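User: I've been going back and forth on whether these two constructs are worth ordering. Before I decide, could you fold them both?

Assistant: Sure. I'll take them in the order you sent them. The first construct and its structure tokens:
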Amino acid sequence: MRKKEPKEIFKKSLLACVVIVGFGVYLSIRGSKEKTEFESVTGQIDYFDKTFGEINYGNKGDHRFIHIVDFPLVFEIFVGNAPGDFGPKFEQLDQLAVGDEITVYYAEKTPLQRNQDLRLNKTVQFIDKDGEAYFIRGNKDKYGGYFFIGIGVLLAIALLILKRIGKIQ
């Protein structure tokens, strides 16, 4: 019986771990930024929709869709309040109406979001009306970043162990 040769995947797998950790760092930094550090747009709402339950891609929870006059994208905002949801820290979006002038602070799309629905921006961080907060993001980005950092580090440790015992090269 022939002994299996160790597979030569160590370098590529370790590079993948570095990418995963890098993405985690990116998310955790984005989750810690102040409002003024994000892109913003100010304008009148010309479309506002409240959607409940299962929508788009099978997402569950409450979503709000807001469009601002002359802005090319519709903002999709998750406002789930069920236990376990990574909902916002504060939100009173249902008090907004078509015609209200608001300022939306949003982040750039992550690499994983760039090829999703190009009509939507799902990275809303804050929404203000007349200097008063109507939406403040939750900790989803921060915790997601920590998760990716942890997974990347654990995978790297597993790779190092497998290399040391000779299972991979």
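The second construct, handled the same way:
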Amino acid sequence: MADSSNNSNGQNGSARWAGVVVTVVLAAGAMTVQWGVVTTKLQQVEKRLDEFIGEARSIRAQYAEMERKIWFLEGKLSGLTSNAPRQTVPTTGGGP
């Protein structure tokens, strides 16, 4: 009788450890898959942020160009409306 109870406890103990091992392996596999998903999403976010940075630089350059054009036009307008004579820009490299 002692042998049969000892044998069933041994089988229950190994089944319990097998269950723990299977659970740990499945959890490690799930964590690996989840890590891959998170890494992929982060790479996509990084790529999108790089695109936004490029767009922001382009918009900033366009804004600066527009600002220069507006300053130029405002300068021409103020030159036309003032009574003072227009000043000419000196040229370089010319002779007498």
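Notes on the second construct follow. The chain has a mean pLDDT of 82. The helical segments are 2-81.
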